[in-house]
Amino acid sequence: METRGFSAAERLERLPISGYHRIIFIIIALAFFFDSMDLAMMTFLLGSIKTEFGLSTAQAGLLASSSFFGMVVGASLSGMLADRFGRKPVFQWSIVLWGIASYLCSTAQNVETLTLFRILLGIGMGMEFPIAQSMLSELIPAKKRGRYIALMDGFWPLGFVAAGVLSYFLLPVIGWRDIFLVLAVPAVFVLAIRFFIPESPRWLEQAGHHDVADKVLLRIEDRVRTSLGRSQLPEPIRLPRVASTPGHFFSALRQIWSPLYRQRTMMIWSVWFFALLGFYGLTSWLSALLQQSGFAVTQSVYYTVLISLGGIPGFLMAAWLVERWGRKPVCVVTLLGGGVMAFLYGQSAVFGGNVSLLIASGLLMQFFLFGMWAVLYTYTPELYPTSARATGSGFASAIGRVGSLLGPMVTGLVFPMTGQGGVFALGAMCFAIAAGVVWVFGMETRGKTLEELSEAIVG
Predict the structure, then answer these.
(1) How far is CA 88 from CA 12, 19, 113, 190, in A?
(2) Which residue(s) pair with 458 in the sheet?
(3) What is the mean pLDDT of residues 130-147?
């Protein structure tokens, strides 16, 4: 079958989901998993680091926030770099950077150098997250795209739980430095990415590299045929053609603020900011607030990990619902559900720290909030064309990381005045604002190809 007259999107969208698609998913999801472990690990190591370096609460808070500062920088830069130079090289170098930075954290002899290395680690993680969602959205056909991206994001709660289990067993044995050393090892996955993950044919085509895009597509089609055990693939179906844009560094940034995409950008930036302000304002203090309610340190770590287990069925449910209900309603429901449960969790202190109420509301809070994460990572890259997808995703993530930076600080200011109930009420309000923004200004993207969702149609 002759396919060279068809676009990259037309050839990719007609491919049945195969074992080859699943290999791509597993490699990208594992990179996401180890990144998430590195990010979450500070929740469990901060107490030991604070004790060794004799840090004040303010210094410990600054150290905990340092990786988020790096993520703002990394997410902002990576999108523009990936839209200019390609998804694959930026994705590879992000993993190399966080691997090296994690190793450097294991060598830190004072809080200043550790803070610097955590910033570098944050840059690597900030680069990787939006590129992962862009790559997967461009390689998986529309009919399964939402489910796979939502499942990828589910590796974040798995990473959080794994970080807690790893620290629980290894921290008393090898100390916090060697745990950072262990976390540097997964950077070898960059080798798997080099050999198994292709560059996005959609990006190659819009960047003008048509011959390279055709070669990559032929390899993908061959591997799908081999995986399925077929000699023939379905015929491509004509899709809307999207206008190409000049490939200089800032063109994608201008595009996401053009009249065609301005409302989408304002909507998704607002959602990321308020959602992450609420999420990190609460989760970064979960263990500390448990201790404040009278639980021992070991109990607080145990309950924090236990509560996080609610995120696993949460992202699985979201991955199923985004293709049944659609992105917009699932986003609204998870945000509102997370807000209600956050408020109830905060009220557990009012009832004397009732363990049953605390665990039940905490599990349900994480169920909804990790479902929210799954929808956000699915929804964001679908709002932009290939020429600006990584930039749009990267800047939305960066704005969210600003919320991540502010969340713990705002919580620290509010807690002495309002107590635990006020902190979680504030978090609930943030989620409600984000839900309202999606409900009023959001668009539905379920079942549509990325090209159909683009407003810059030609022909």
Answers:
(1) 17, 20, 30, 10
(2) 241
(3) 88
Where are the domains positioned within the chain?
A: 8-232+239-458
d(CA 201, CA 81): 17
Beta-carbon count within 10 A of 155 CB: 23
**CA 127 – CA 121 distance, rounded (Å):** 10
Domain 8-232+239-458 has CATH 3.40.50.1450: no
| 457: helix, strand or coil | strand
Report how far residue 459's alpha carbon sits from residue 445's, in angstroms, rounded to the nearest whole number: 22
| pLDDT of 340 strictly over 60 | yes
- 203: which residues sit within 8 A by CB, 6+ positions away? 82, 83, 86, 87, 138, 386
Share of the chain above pLDDT 70, in %: 90
CB burial class (10 A; 0-12, 13-18, 19+) of residue 428?
Answer: buried
Contact yes or no for 95/128 (Cβ under 8 A): yes
Helices (H), 250-354: 251-256, 262-283, 286-292, 297-308, 311-321, 327-347
Burial (0-12, 13-18, 19+ Cβ within 10 Å), 374: buried
Q: Identify the residue with better confidence: 194 or 36.
A: 36
Contact present, 339 and 435 (Cβ < 8 Å)? yes
Q: Residue 327 is encoded by which pair of tokens?
A: 């992105």
β-sheet bridge partners, residue 241: 458
Q: Are 126 and 74 in contact (CB under 8 A)?
A: yes
| pLDDT tens digit sequence for 227-271 | 988 888 888 877 766 655 555 557 778 888 988 899 999 999 999
Taking residues 183-210, what's their average pLDDT?
83
Which residues share a beta bridge with 242?
Answer: 457
Q: What are phi and psi of 458, to 5 degrees?
A: -115, 155
pTM: 0.82
Structure token pair of residue 291: 């201790």
Q: How far apart (Å, rounded) are the C-alpha atoms in residues 311 and 364?
A: 8
